[in-house]
Write a structure and sequence with these properties.
The chain is an alpha+beta fold. The protein has two domains: 201 residues, no CATH class; 124 residues, Aspartate Aminotransferase, domain 1 (Alpha-Beta Complex), CATH 3.90.1150. The strands form two sheets. A five-stranded antiparallel beta sheet has the order 3-4-5-6-7. The chain starts with a helix and ends with a helix. About 3% of the residues have low confidence.
């Protein structure tokens, strides 16, 4: 299963992806961990967890085996690490309980790392990207150790750690580990099924934008401005030009200004939302373009009106569409408005 050309090919691809992910995070660490957290940045951090942090947890897993082998007087005679797969070969005179403890040492390291990452990501003050990274690593690390590896032992015909841990020769130890194993899995299911905790997680990490209509019952202008900012960030994610976003809460409503420069023109798209209590509440989009130093007055133009309270995701296509429109304007748009 873990040899032959197919395994070598998969290892080479995984190593390449890991290297690319490391270079990406190192080169863009300032923007990845700043205050603006886009969908693209979430995906890049997800790749970093899957291709870099998760393999490192496998290395730590094997290190746990090796340390306990040493503690029981054994000798490590072989060590292998292939990103998602590793092994420790050792010799020594062990009891059945010691063999079970050596087997459990690897998953125990993963459990400690996973729970530690979740605790740090949840309780320690930090920005959304760092929190997102820790929580992702904790979830994937625990799932890998407590679900994926046991499944391979059972379904893949591999004589792995969990076969030794749940040996009939060590019933009390196996029962103790089984209780811990089940408790963590059940706790994870309960936590994930909790709508309150999911909303709190989304709020802390910006994982999923909240629809405007969910919050427009009793929100203030600042909340609406924040949601407009989320829509603007999603719309500009991966767009042609860097865009500067400024949200503003006003007495008459909230607005988001998106500014960028292209082909010698300063351009802006304004997204304005009326107050939630307005019986005819709506969102308006306006745009402007200016040629700096030309002496020509800026050109402003209303673009569209969206009645009601669209969700964040419903608003994103409008913003993206009119970003493209305003970016296509040229000098004729400034001098001869129509």
């Amino acid at each position: 299963m873990f040899d032959g050309p197919s395994f070598i090919f998969m290892f080479a691809i995984s190593a390449l992806l890991a290297g690319v992910s490391v270079v990406d995070v190192v080169q863009h660490h300032r923007t990845l961990f700043d205050g603006r957290f886009t969908l693209d940045e979430r995906q890049r951090l997800l790749r970093f967890v899957l291709f870099v942090l998760l393999p490192l947890s496998v290395l730590a897993h094997e290190g746990g085996h090796a340390l306990v082998v040493k503690a029981f007087g054994g000798e490590v005679v072989g060590f292998g690490f292939f990103l998602y797969y590793g092994y420790v070969e050792h010799i020594g005179r062990y009891t059945d309980l010691e063999l079970a403890m050596i087997a459990f040492a690897g998953p125990a390291v993963n459990i400690v790392l996973g729970l530690g990452a979740l605790a740090l990501g949840w309780y320690r003050p930090m920005n959304a990207p760092a929190r997102y990274l820790l929580l992702l690593f904790g979830i994937f690390g625990l799932a890998n150790a407590l679900i994926f590896y046991p499944a391979i032992d059972v379904l893949g015909g591999v004589a792995g750690d969990w076969e030794t841990i749940y040996s009939r020769r060590t019933p009390l130890f196996s029962l103790s580990v089984g209780v811990l194993h089940a408790a963590i899995l059940v706790a994870g299911i309960i936590v994930w099924r909790s709508a309150t905790l999911r909303r709190e997680c989304e709020s802390r990490t910006g994982l999923r934008p909240t629809p405007l209509r969910r919050h427009l019952q009793h929100p203030g202008p600042r909340q609406v401005a924040g949601m407009l900012t989320v829509a603007g960030a999603l719309a500009t994610n991966g767009w042609t030009h860097p865009v500067h976003l400024v949200a503003d809460a006003q007495a008459g409503g909230s607005q988001l200004i998106l500014r960028w420069e292209s082909r010698g023109f300063q351009r802006a798209l304004v997204v304005h939302s009326t107050l939630p209590e307005d019986p005819e509440r709506h969102i308006e989009l306006h745009a402007g373009i200016e040629a700096p130093g030309s002496g020509i007055p800026p050109y402003h133009r209303p673009l569209a009106r969206v009645d009601g309270t669209p969700t964040t995701h419903e608003l994103v296509p409008y913003i993206r569409r009119y970003l493209d429109l305003v970016d296509s304007w040229d000098g004729a748009s400034v001098t001869t408005p129509n």
